[in-house]
Amino acid sequence: MSDTSSRLRIVWIYPDLLSTYGDRGNVLILRRRAELRGIATEIVHVHSSDAVPVEGDIYLLGGGEDRPQILAAERLRADGGLKRAAERGAAVLAICAGYQIIGESYGDDADNPLPGVGILDVRSGRGETRAVGEIVADVDPNLGVGRITGFENHQGRTAIGPNAVPLSRTVRGIGNDGQTEGAYQGQVLGTYLHGPALPRNPELADLLLRWRVGAIPPLPPSWGERLHEERLAAAL
Ligand code: GLN
């Protein structure tokens, strides 16, 4: 955890620009699953007019429409805090628009390439079609997460560079390119899964916690696991 606090600091980046699909649910589930393990948490909401604190533990970025996404990327690049936090070893979960803007570059609404924050080696542009619907994917076995489900709604397509690894292989849906879904590099993870992603995939929440606090005990199955199973059954 951060040097300055005994609490796990969960930083929600720009809820005023990047929060289209119930992204707050990701914050709530992360806090809940931490506290069930006896880990105290602190939630920090960072609006787009605020400076991004560098000493957070887990940073969350949600989805957004094309124009708010551009504004968010410009402000994050000018601020520099998210990049410094990632360089210090913070964990990052970035969803859809958030995923695109933490990469090296992404396409604006006319597919002009714009610079991203540059903490994940991916490049995004616009596809011919919009990817909309349920998505199911099998996560890289190295991460111990299994099969994930979500809802995707994006025009972007994403190519993964040599320093990043695909998060998962798609079973249903488009994700990055119809073959893979999401990417990670160290403790920085991006995905097209909305839903929101963490309530639908408790194992993904636990991965972020493990990245920051180390081994954590399993929890007895609860409604989160039931939701996961229900969504998987509905999508396949
Ligand atoms: N504007 C981006 C796209 O269409 C991201 C959309 C989103 O976050 N749902 O690809």
UniProtKB/TrEMBL annotation:
Would the keyword DNA-binding be found if you checked this record's keyword annotation? no
> Active-site positions, per UniProt?
96 (nucleophile), 194
Question: Where's the CobB/CobQ-like glutamine amidotransferase domain?
Answer: 9-201
EC number(s) reported in the record: 6.3.5.13, 3.5.1.2
Its keywords, alphabetically, are: Cell shape, Cell wall biogenesis/degradation, Glutamine amidotransferase, Hydrolase, Ligase, Peptidoglycan synthesis, Transferase
Note the subunit structure.
Forms a heterodimer with MurT.
This chain's function reads: The lipid II isoglutaminyl synthase complex catalyzes the formation of alpha-D-isoglutamine in the cell wall lipid II stem peptide. The GatD subunit catalyzes the hydrolysis of glutamine to glutamate and ammonia. The resulting ammonia molecule is channeled to the active site of MurT.
> What PANTHER family does this protein map onto?
DETHIOBIOTIN SYNTHETASE (PTHR21343), LIPID II ISOGLUTAMINYL SYNTHASE (GLUTAMINE-HYDROLYZING) SUBUNIT GATD (PTHR21343:SF9)
Q: State the protein's name.
A: Lipid II isoglutaminyl synthase (glutamine-hydrolyzing) subunit GatD
Q: Tell me which species this is from.
A: Marinitenerispora sediminis
